[in-house]
Design a protein that fits this description.
The protein has twelve helices and ten strands. By secondary structure, it is of the alpha/beta class. The strands form two sheets. Strands 3-2-1-4-5 form a five-stranded mixed beta sheet, with helices on both faces. A five-stranded mixed beta sheet has the order 8-7-6-9-10, sandwiched between helices. The longest helix has 27 residues. The protein binds 5'-O-[(R)-(carboxyoxy)(hydroxy)phosphoryl]adenosine (KG4) and zinc ion (ZN).
């Protein structure tokens, strides 16, 4: 079964064709990062308009060489205007080509990235979805049967990386740049807090560590004025910050895997590109940890096409009245309004 999939929930326009949930036949991702960098964050209306301009030529190019059996699109969660562009395009395509429509939850899609990189891996496992918008621990019992067991109470881990990077003058989105700077630093030099959420052993909070970094830089600017960058060891600030975030993530992910008796753990989402996090998880979990390659960890449509296959096996086809939702729990089966 070949599924044509669309992903437009944030600032990547993505189209792919995936066979039977496991094989990428074609995949294109167009990042809008340059358009939003000027504003230091994603501007929803610019994102929607850019998706609108690029989705048609991208779809034509990706779909033209394949026999398509069904059409899928991310229907939640995300920027509502951005989601509507991809979902509505998918509906139009499905209607014109008389094909069934499969709505997909973006977080379920992030998890499915691992089905593309590891064709033999199947649930059950614990999934950690760590991105700019989400930090969630999900017990995946089967392809479409899952429960959220933990998550962040405030900032997503990637969001904390991006805000820290901005204060350090590393641009937007600065997670990867902060991590590169950290390679030259001493991660034990600055003390950053590791928050614990009372009575919720698998929950996290990253606003405290972010604020601590902002205060450190703010105080340095007040003390040293324009010379602050010479007085502060920036690579070590980045390394100490990264270590604090990575330790919290690793601790919660491993704690949840232990408590739930999970034999496999899957890391997904853009922050899975962080080498310190991957190394820490490999050290703690060995063969148990599964991490898709970087191009499948960030937003893409192949992961949506993969999850769509399993939603379809479950009969989750939608009518052409299917709506999009800015927020929606990933463990609720009712996303499909069919
Ligand atoms: O999954 P993704 O592409 O988009 C969202 O759905 O959010 O994740 C992007 C996030 C950004 O916050 C970015 O700064 C972060 O992933 N990121 C990293 C690294 N590479 C990307 N954070 C830390 N270290 C990295 N190497
Ligand atoms: Zn994402």
């Amino acid at each position: 079964m070949n599924i044509l999939a669309f992903e437009t929930s944030c600032d990547e326009t993505a189209v792919a064709v995936v066979r039977d949930g496991r094989t990428i036949l074609d995949s294109a991702v167009l990042s809008q990062t340059d358009l939003h960098a000027l504003y230091g964050g994603v501007v929803p209306e610019i994102a929607s308009r850019s998706h609108l301009e690029t989705i048609t030529p991208m779809a034509r190019k990706v779909a033209e060489h394949h026999k398509i059996d069904a059409v899928a699109a991310t229907a939640a969660p995300g920027l509502i205007g951005a989601l509507l562009v991809g979902l509505n395009f998918a509906k139009g395509y499905a209607m014109a080509a008389r094909l069934p429509l499969i709505p997909v939850h973006h977080i379920r899609g992030h998890i499915a990235a691992v089905y593309l990189s590891e064709p033999e891996l199947r649930p059950p496992f614990l999934a950690a979805v760590v991105s700019g918008g989400h930090t969630l621990l999900i017990e995946v019992r089967d392809y479409t049967d899952m429960s959220v067991v933990g998550g962040t109470r405030d900032d997503a881990a990637g969001e904390a990386f991006d805000k820290a990077a901005r204060v350090l003058g590393l641009g937007y989105p600065g997670g990867a740049a902060l991590s590169r700077l950290a390679e030259k630093g001493d991660s034990g030099r600055y003390a950053f807090p590791r928050a614990v959420v009372k009575d919720a052993p698998f929950d996290m909070s990253f606003s405290g560590v972010k604020t601590a970094l902002i205060n450190l830089i703010h105080n340095a600017k007040q003390l040293y004025g324009d010379d602050w960058t010479e007085e502060i060891d920036l690579p070590s600030v980045a390394a100490s910050f990264e270590r604090a975030v990575v330790e919290v993530l690793t601790d919660r992910i491993c704690g949840a895997a232990d408590a739930l008796g999970c034999e496999s753990v899957v890391l997904a989402g853009g922050v899975a590109a962080n080498r310190t996090l991957c190394a820490a998880l490999r050290e703690r979990l060995g063969e148990k940890i599964h991490i898709p390659p970087v191009n499948l960890c960030g937003d893409n449509a192949a992961m949506i096409g993969s999850q769509a296959y399993y939603e379809a096996q479950n009969g989750a086809y939608a009518p052409l009245s299917q709506n999009a939702f800015a927020t929606f729990p990933p463990d609720n089966q009712a996303l499909c309004s069919g």
